[in-house]
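We store amino acids, tokens; thus:
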Amino acid sequence: MFQRMIDDFKDSVTNSARLASLAAAIALTLFIALAFLCAAAFVYVLQTHGLIDACLAGAGVFFAVTVIAAISYLVRASRIKRIRARAADHKRSPLHSALADPMLVATALQLVRAIGVKRLIPILAVGGLALGFLATRGAASARDDAPPET
């Protein structure tokens, strides 16, 4: 349960980092395109032939890169939004499933009555620690067994 939450957090951070780097690339290429357009205007004023075509061509290339990067950013952002919306619709936590079972809830209440709340708290704390260790150990072995990503 905790491992899935950690994996979801890692995926979210990874997607945010990718979108941020794409946005930075868009900003950089737009800055370069504007720089070439400014250079072209300067050169046009200075000279009316020759170098202008080169500056406009450079600005056109960087502008095309900016448009391509912006389109890929928008497509990726909309895809992530759709995936998150779909996951939110289908996502049910294991805790919700466990609490929805009345027999399990009744058994838990009987167990609490039999053991007592004062004794149950340390037992649950130790059980939580053990569950955390098992979850991290299972994730580490699963990561070692997985093929490397390319």
